[in-house]
TrEMBL record:
<comment type="pathway">
    <text>Porphyrin-containing compound metabolism; heme O biosynthesis; heme O from protoheme: step 1/1.</text>
</comment>
<dbReference type="GO" id="GO:0008495">
    <property type="term" value="F:protoheme IX farnesyltransferase activity"/>
</dbReference>
<keyword id="KW-0472">Membrane</keyword>
<keyword id="KW-1133">Transmembrane helix</keyword>
<feature type="transmembrane region" description="Helical">
    <location>
        <begin position="232"/>
        <end position="249"/>
    </location>
</feature>
<feature type="transmembrane region" description="Helical">
    <location>
        <begin position="38"/>
        <end position="55"/>
    </location>
</feature>
<keyword id="KW-0808">Transferase</keyword>
<dbReference type="Pfam" id="PF01040">
    <property type="entry name" value="UbiA"/>
</dbReference>
<comment type="similarity">
    <text>Belongs to the UbiA prenyltransferase family. Protoheme IX farnesyltransferase subfamily.</text>
</comment>
<feature type="transmembrane region" description="Helical">
    <location>
        <begin position="61"/>
        <end position="83"/>
    </location>
</feature>
<feature type="transmembrane region" description="Helical">
    <location>
        <begin position="183"/>
        <end position="203"/>
    </location>
</feature>
<feature type="transmembrane region" description="Helical">
    <location>
        <begin position="104"/>
        <end position="124"/>
    </location>
</feature>
<feature type="transmembrane region" description="Helical">
    <location>
        <begin position="158"/>
        <end position="177"/>
    </location>
</feature>
<dbReference type="InterPro" id="IPR044878">
    <property type="entry name" value="UbiA_sf"/>
</dbReference>
<keyword id="KW-1003">Cell membrane</keyword>
<feature type="transmembrane region" description="Helical">
    <location>
        <begin position="255"/>
        <end position="275"/>
    </location>
</feature>
<feature type="transmembrane region" description="Helical">
    <location>
        <begin position="130"/>
        <end position="151"/>
    </location>
</feature>
């Protein structure tokens, strides 16, 4: 009798387990629409802007501001996935995303993104100030309309101009605290803006076949690998002096200045390795783009460390 009871219990439990697994998988898909890997850097840079701003926010309001930045970035990612579902379906690295894979309906994803976007802007205005809410709204519109809908499929300069979308978070964090725009957050905006092309073009050097197959005019597809390598070096050379501006204008101290210089020298080393990578006549890597992959990975560490050093330096000067 006990065996029958046990087997019956297991049989009754199986559908519940399957339902629970399906529910967990669905939750993961809705989270995936927010592009969580991208979110980590967005949230971090927004937090840095908030921490280094003069003045302070009540902890609850500060958490609310970061939550708004998170939801806004996620909303932009969801709307981007809705719009790009056709090209995502033909690219190896994106075809398993929830919409092209058929796990989430496109209209539902769009509604999800719009609700999060409107909610994040409204909450930011109520929790902090309406200038911060306006800048937050501008960042969403820039990413969705200017980059995703206009630039991405039309010009190889999509990443250069579209990089502004990812440069907003430090500015938003600052404005959430101060209610105003100042020189330093604009410098941080410029730093992230200039960081984006070498970061993304290093990635595109080994992902260019995906973009070519999808008809997206990324720089390696339109101008070739050699020109892309040259642009990685040029933008890195322009970026490194810019990162020293907070120290030069007296906003930060020697800790940040030294860290920025060392990080910059290392970034330049990686960019030079991308340029001098063994290539064929067309500029295609003969090493499997190992230097480009290393440059891409370092560029992420670089920005995290650079912004972290700025916040630490401000803490030491306080």
């Amino acid at each position: 009798m006990s065996d029958t009871t046990v087997h019956g219990s297991r049989g009754a439990q199986a559908p519940l387990d399957a339902s629970a697994l399906h529910g967990a998988s669905e939750v993961r898909d809705w989270i995936a629409l927010l592009k969580p890997r991208v979110l980590s850097l967005v949230v971090y840079s927004g937090l840095i802007g908030l921490l280094i701003a003069p003045g302070s926010l009540h902890p609850v309001l500060a958490v609310s501001a970061i939550l708004c930045i998170t939801l806004a970035a996620g909303a932009a990612g969801a709307i981007n996935m809705w719009y790009d579902r056709d090209i995502d379906a033909v690219m190896k690295r994106t075809r398993a995303r929830p919409i092209p894979a058929g796990r989430i309906e496109a209209g539902a994803a769009l509604g999800y993104g719009v609700v999060l976007a409107v909610g994040s802007v409204g909450l930011m205005g109520l929790a902090t100030n309406w200038l911060a809410a306006a800048v937050l709204a501008g960042s969403i519109l820039f990413y969705v309309v200017i980059y995703t809908m206009w630039l991405k499929r039309r010009t190889p300069q999509n990443i250069v101009i579209g990089g502004a979308a990812g440069a907003f978070p430090p500015l938003i964090g600052w404005v959430a605290v101060t209610g105003s725009v100042d020189v330093l957050p604009l410098v941080l905006f410029a730093i992230v803006f200039m960081w984006t092309p070498p970061h993304f073009w290093a990635l595109s050097l080994w992902a260019h076949e995906d973009y070519k197959r999808a008809g997206v005019p990324m720089l390696p597809v339109v101008s070739g690998a050699r020109e892309t390598r040259r642009q990685v070096v040029i933008y890195t050379v322009l970026l490194v002096p810019l990162t020293l501006v907070p120290w030069l204008i007296g906003f930060s101290g020697p800790v940040y200045g030294l860290v920025a210089a060392l990080l910059g020298a290392n970034f330049l080393r990686h960019a030079w390795a991308v340029w001098t990578d063994a290539q064929d006549a067309a500029g295609v890597s003969l090493t499997g783009d190992r230097p480009a992959k290393a440059c891409f990975r370092f560029s992420i560490t670089y920005l995290f460390a650079l912004l972290g050093a700025l916040a630490l330096d401000r803490l030491l000067l306080a």
